[in-house]
Amino acid sequence: MRVVISQELLSAVLSTVSKAVTRSINPVLNHVRVVVSSDHVEMTATDGEFTIRRTLAVSGADPGSFLAPADLLSKLVGKLPKKDVTLSTEGNQLNVQVGRSSYDLTIMPDENFPSLPEYDGSLLTSIPASLLKNALQQTTFSAVKDSSTGAVHYTNGVFFVFHGASLDIVATDGHRLALKRNKGLAGNELEQNLLLPARVADELEKMLPDDDDAAVAIFNPGNQVAFAFGSQLVVCSLLDVKFPDYERVIPKDIATRVFLDKSELNDALQRVQLVCRTRDQNPVAHIESSEDKIDIRSDAGEVGKGVEELAAQIEGGAIRIALNPEYIIQVLKNVPGDQVVLNWINEVNPVLVSSPRDPDYLYIVMPIRMD
Amino acid sequence: MEEAQPRQPIMALSEQEARRISAGEVVERPVNVVKELVENALDAGATQVTVELEDGGRQLIRVTDNGHGIPASELPLAVLPHHTSKIRSLDDVFGLSSLGFRGEALASIAAVSRLRIASHHADDELGTALSLDPAGLSSTEPVNLQGGTEVEVRELFHNTPARLKFLRSRQSESAQVGRMLVSYAIAWPEVRWELLSAGRSLLSTDGSGDRRQVLSDLIEPGFRHELHELDYEFPPSAVHGLISDPTYHRNNRSRQWFFINRRPVTNRLLYKAVDDAMREFLSSGKYPAGAFFLELPPEEIDVNVHPMKLEVSFSQPQAVYTLLSTAVRRGMNRAAGERQGSLRSGLSSVVRQLDAGMPGRPVDSIERRRPNLSLADAARQYAEVSVDASVTPARLEPEDDFAFVPPPIDVIPERRVQLAQDDADAGFADAPQLSLVGQVGNSYLVLNSGERLYVVDQHAAHERILFEKIYEAVDPARASAITRQSLLFPMVVSLDDTESEDMQPLLEALRRVGFNAEAGAGGSLVISEVPQFLRNRINPALMADALEEFSSRGISDLLEDRIKELAASISCRAAIKARMRLTESEQLALLRLLLESWSSLSCPHGRPTIIEIGSSELEKMFLR
How far is B529 from chain A (nearest CA, A)? Predict the structure, then answer.
């Protein structure tokens, strides 16, 4: 096997696929599978459930395949000079050579590497990559990526709901929920739900191109899902847990709408949050309205307290609610436009955060209660 | 076949015989005699008590004290039944603060031995000795004695062979006396105690009044572990005493001494109170050493259950249990907090370094309560800081991946004050410089201070932290400060085995720890609000597990106990599990929590959470 690839491309490909590598006692999973054919190279890494594959075009390569140590190869290539890198194998050694640098790494034969499912016949749909990237950005942060409580839960996933010509993407940690509705997708007549692990959704979002012309093909082989875009492929196992009926918790019968300047609200909450950090890490912001303004108060006992006053345009009666300011700060990063609306029913019901610019983006926060 | 015994006529026992029989209830063995005599000595204000035994007390028991003595005129009365200087009527029994009171002691002893009492009261010119034999014959003679009383009991049980037969070996009888005198030595450290058996000294204290010293010496020779102070008042009751650090424990209760109003007692309820309180710090079957002094209003106790006066009963046992277990728990938590001091400050330096080294992360110092400083204070602080700041770069060495950039020396004054104060608060100068080595076996975090290694059990540590937070709810004032995060989708937890039970106590306990729950259909529980700090650590499966464990633990009807059990069940389930890989930021987050939690060295099930391995231990392992 022998192939020449530019250092920048090789490094980018290796660092992308390495995201699927987790330290494992199964040595195969600590390796990246490299398959070289005459005109392209395919690199695949997996942790058994989550797989990333990237393909890059080359010319004049000698075919071959092997398993290379992912971490070592990725770090080594990252430190090489920005020139063409020559990879060649001999026996159980991979030679990595640039100019006067030459390294021989021990590799494993291309055996026992988990194979990808046959997804060719399972195409669900194809949608614009930028649409998916944006929807994931607006929702994934609401899911729980850390699953250190053990059992998998719906809060650990990002939910895809294909319904006719629309795709809803939803994520929740049980206390707040982000929903992005994508309507009018051409050529879709699907009724299909997928619950994607939040960790994968996060990586996928970073990998997706921001290009309006690029498309992403979504496959659903068995209990897996595959996203193919450009030269990249992301495959993962779906979470096998039931996602709750999110339509039911979207607030209706709104009593008051409070229109606020997004950046003013963000700045105020950032400051308020500083004095919310009590010992127990229980941040609480108390929001109250009067005529044409709202007050945001924080009281962290012995640490201190603060109050912010913001101009607001209010439709409806006075509001009063206690919220975790972090939950609002996080959504403000993803609300397009300058304005944000807090839709309030009463102090025990959820608050709906909405955007006049993007009516298909909804964010629901449950209040904090105290006696 | 044996001949039937001819029938004996019913007759009144002679007074002498009756006294011998009743005396047997009071005096079973030498230790009872010594106890009665020692209590008399203490009641007489003695500061020195010497007990001498011959043949384990069979031949001779002699108790000598330097108390105020008995006037010659009252001496013959002292040995009559129901004669005492300690109470005048039955009512006095309930207001008792002196040690002996039944007025039977000397009379009972006299009935089964040859008794001689020599005493000298300050009002008399000369001392007087009174000799009695079991037949009731007495004689007095003047003796040369300078204050105090000397009681000699010879040939105990010589006239009751049945009793005599039940005595054990000389060693066994004198060991019993020794054990009892140990209790008195702990309770009365200002008294010089001496026990001589066949001329050999078995116990000797210096009467310096230093109870800690007496207790250490009595726990075991060369005892070097810490003894923590117990000090808890709940007027009119109180608990004082000393308890050994959890680093010291025994497999039995032989180094525990209990006292009520300074009287040695034994009582299962008191054992249980200490055991239960220590369950957070020691595994079951391990017992701390300690001396536990309860002060209770006399009307709350009945010491008259048994003439030996060791067994007591309480009119409000639950209150006494809570008093003692609270005292022990508070004492241990305070001690754990102190012990944690240097470790915490060491950890805080790690967190600072990690924070500083984490790309894209603000330098976020550990939140700490900062008192308002007067100008003078500020100036003083500032002066101290300059010293501190100047050594900062040297101390905070870059650590591998977490390059720490030392702050420039001319930072703004506020910042320097803040830094210095953090350090000063935590005793930073003495604290080890720690670096995070990493996670081992996906279960333990390893820290290196240069001198010592610290190994943190991630599950036990996190469990402990959560337990402390949940358990705060025992205090209703703090429970009301728990903020609850509402759930978008209520959690439905099915409780199979409690279907028939009354759910109210469970709902009440849940409410106290920050859950809003109500009974749902078919014995299920519907949870709509959870404590805010548990917001991302709770799900229905986990709650079902926790509640199942909780209902299997349920023993007490007391809400406080239920809350504690609930806290233990929930914290165990919600904590980070063992065998779970933590990312660097998760490790950092856990360290941060550790820092904020005071007594986090033991988890609720009694295992340690952090172990230290010093260089001396390492040397041992390498056989150096």
Answer: 8
Q: Verify whether the Cβ–Cβ distance B539 to A153 is below 8 Å.
A: yes
- Flag whether B323 is in a domain: no
Q: At CB < 8 A and 24+ separation, what contacts does A125-128 make? A: A125/A162, A125/A185, A125/A187, A125/A188, A125/A190, A125/A217, A125/A218, A126/A215, A126/A216, A126/A217, A126/A218, A127/A167, A127/A182, A127/A185, A127/A215, A127/A216, A127/A218, A128/A212, A128/A214, A128/A215, A128/A216
Across the interface, whether the CB atoms of A150 and B483 are under 8 A apart is answered no
The residue whose two tokens read 């102190």 is: B338
CB B54 within 8 Å of CB B153? no
Give all strands (DSSP E) within B134-277, no chain letters.
138-143, 148-154, 192-197, 200-204, 227-234, 237-244, 256-260, 263-265
Domain final residue pick, B262, B281, B315: B315
pLDDT tens per residue across span A229-279: 989 999 999 998 899 999 999 999 999 999 999 999 999 999 988 887 554
Looking at the domain assignment, is residue B336 inside a domain?
yes
State whether ipTM is beyond 0.85: no
B220 lies in the same domain as B194: no
Is A370's CB within 8 Å of B487's CB?
A: no
What is the pTM for the complete model shown? 0.58
- Mark whether B528 and B565 lie in a shared domain: yes
In this structure, the answer to whether residues B167 and B189 fall within a common structural domain is: yes
Asked whether B495 and B543 are in contact (CB, 8 A), the reply is no
A152 touches chain B (CB under 8 A): no
* Domain-located, residue B284: yes
Average pLDDT, chain B: 72
Which tokens belong to A287?
């929001």
Q: Which residues sit opposite B524 in a β-bridge? A: B494
Does any CB of chain B come closer than 8 Å to the CB of residue A325? no
Greater model confidence, A314 or B40: A314
Number of domains within chain B = 3
Q: Chain B residues with CB inside 8 Å of A350's CB?
A: 486, 488
Indicate if B231 and B185 belong to the same structural domain.
Answer: no
Phi, psi at A84, each rounded to 5° = -75, 135
The 10 Å Cβ neighbour count of residue B62 is 19
Question: Which of B367, B532, B581 is facing A368, going by the closest CB pair?
Answer: B532
Residue where a domain stops, chosen among B315, B344, B362: B315
CB pairs under 8 A between A and B: 93
In Å, how far is A149's CA from the nearest CA of chain B?
A: 6
Using the predicted structure, report yes or no on whether residue A109 has a pLDDT greater than 90.
yes
Show the domain range for B471: 332-614
Asked if residue B619 belongs to a domain, the reply is no
Domains of chain A from N-terminus onward:
2-106 (3.10.150.10), 120-247 (3.10.150.10), 250-365 (3.10.150.10)
